[in-house]
From TrEMBL:
<keyword id="KW-0032">Aminotransferase</keyword>
<protein>
    <recommendedName>
        <fullName>Histidinol-phosphate aminotransferase</fullName>
        <ecNumber>2.6.1.9</ecNumber>
    </recommendedName>
</protein>
<dbReference type="GO" id="GO:0030170">
    <property type="term" value="F:pyridoxal phosphate binding"/>
</dbReference>
<keyword id="KW-0368">Histidine biosynthesis</keyword>
<feature type="modified residue" description="N6-(pyridoxal phosphate)lysine">
    <location>
        <position position="212"/>
    </location>
</feature>
<dbReference type="InterPro" id="IPR015424">
    <property type="entry name" value="PyrdxlP-dep_Trfase"/>
</dbReference>
<keyword id="KW-0028">Amino-acid biosynthesis</keyword>
<dbReference type="InterPro" id="IPR001917">
    <property type="entry name" value="Aminotrans_II_pyridoxalP_BS"/>
</dbReference>
<keyword id="KW-0808">Transferase</keyword>
<dbReference type="InterPro" id="IPR005861">
    <property type="entry name" value="HisP_aminotrans"/>
</dbReference>
<keyword id="KW-0663">Pyridoxal phosphate</keyword>
<dbReference type="GO" id="GO:0004400">
    <property type="term" value="F:histidinol-phosphate transaminase activity"/>
</dbReference>
<dbReference type="InterPro" id="IPR015422">
    <property type="entry name" value="PyrdxlP-dep_Trfase_small"/>
</dbReference>
<dbReference type="Pfam" id="PF00155">
    <property type="entry name" value="Aminotran_1_2"/>
</dbReference>
<comment type="similarity">
    <text>Belongs to the class-II pyridoxal-phosphate-dependent aminotransferase family. Histidinol-phosphate aminotransferase subfamily.</text>
</comment>
<dbReference type="GO" id="GO:0000105">
    <property type="term" value="P:L-histidine biosynthetic process"/>
</dbReference>
<comment type="pathway">
    <text>Amino-acid biosynthesis; L-histidine biosynthesis; L-histidine from 5-phospho-alpha-D-ribose 1-diphosphate: step 7/9.</text>
</comment>
């Protein structure tokens, strides 16, 4: 007899985007990493924390992430008890399910979006219900009142790149009997966000990550903003020293350098618009994107063919075998020169 819990024995683990061992040999546009380094203040803060001999590492970090939470709270215009830090926003998604959805209870999300919600629900033994999208990116068959414990709304959507409007999300929150989590992993690249709506909606939780806009995927940092009672619950169930000393000073420095963030965001958005226009000029269908990636389909709607041809040229993009997505590719926005190289390759591939 298998001693594992049934759901663990039966589940498939999540498969993250491919990380090649010889990273520098590739143009890597498959995991929506930032092409530019984090703010120079980040490396400075890490060096200062490590000091000459790493002596500070003897000591545990601040279990409550006080400085980082204060910096985030100031930036967002809320009090620090509305903010929680996390070891990547993935930690928050996991703890939200643990906090709100018991075994056999339902969570929902949009398909296609971030399939990791499903993996996390399987671990918990929660049930999963997905809702499709209409042609104009509305939710298909969503009930007037949704009774699931949690609903994850990825906005901007990954991998498609469109964002739900603020008015739509506000109305949607009222249709959710349980909690609505707006996963704003890409909101910094978008024209707007819904962070301030947490004040108006008791059941709204907004999650953010430092992995994309702040170029800190390697440090594992995330944040959530919600009502204090939600934050307090998430605080109870997390690992107590979930962020190390270096991650904490890195996050604080990154949050305090908004000028640098604005500069890199502007560059990435400009590259995104140029890349979109150029792809359309060679016959690709490209969804208008609010993220740091685009979803694009070649004229023959064979995403796998182009993926393979790019792979042979050491350009790595994301192709999903899911029938709803197999016609296209998700391509992260890299540096200007990486996107020029990629475009040239795509013109050649046809
Ligand atoms: C990248 C991503 C995350 C995970 O962010 P981490 O902070 O790196 O864990 C969560 N949700 C979406 C939609 C993402 O694209």
């Amino acid at each position: 007899m298998n001693p594992l819990r049934n759901n663990i024995a039966e589940m498939n683990g999540y498969v993250p985007g491919f990380q090649p061992a010889d990273e520098s040999a590739w143009i890597k546009l498959n995991t929506n990493e930032n092409p530019y380094p984090p703010s120079p203040k980040v490396a400075e803060a890490i060096r200062a924390e490590v000091g000459a001999d790493g002596g500070s590492l003897r000591k545990y970090p601040d279990a409550a992430s006080r400085e980082m939470r204060a910096a985030a709270a100031e930036l967002f215009g809320v009090s620090p008890d509305w903010v929680i830090s996390a070891n990547g926003s993935d930690e928050l998604l996991n703890n939200l399910i643990r906090a709100f959805a018991g075994e056999g209870e339902e969570i929902g999300y949009v398909h296609p979006s971030y399939s990791y919600y499903s993996t996390l629900a399987e671990i918990q033994g929660a049930r999963v219900r997905t809702f499709g999208l209409t042609e104009d990116f509305e939710l298909a068959d969503f009930p007037e009142r949704y009774e699931g414990k949690l609903f994850f709304l990825t906005s901007p959507n990954a991998p498609l790149g469109f964002a739900f409007s603020r008015e739509w999300i506000a109305a949607f929150a009222k249709r959710c009997a349980g909690m609505l989590v707006v996963d704003e992993a890409y909101a910094d690249f978008a024209d707007g966000d819904v962070l301030d709506l947490v004040r108006e909606h008791e059941n709204l939780i907004v999650t953010r990550t430092f992995s994309k806009s702040y170029a800190l995927a390697g440090m594992r940092l995330g944040l959530a903003v919600a009502r204090p009672w939600v934050i307090a619950a998430l605080d109870k169930i997390r690992d107590h020293y979930h962020l190390d000393r270096l991650a904490l000073v890195a996050a604080t420095a990154a949050l305090r350098d908004q000028d640098y963030l604005r500069q890199t965001l502007a560059r990435i958005r400009a590259t995104r618009e140029r890349f979109t226009a150029e792809l359309r000029a060679i016959g690709y269908r490209v969804i208008d994107s609010q993220g740091n990636f685009v979803f694009a389909s070649p004229p023959d709607r064979d995403g796998g063919r182009v993926y393979q041809a790019l792979f042979e040229r050491k350009i790595l993009v994301r192709h999903f075998s899911d029938p709803l997505l197999a016609h296209g590719l998700r391509i992260s926005i890299g540096s200007e020169s990486d996107m020029e190289t990629t475009l040239a390759a795509m013109r050649e591939i046809g």
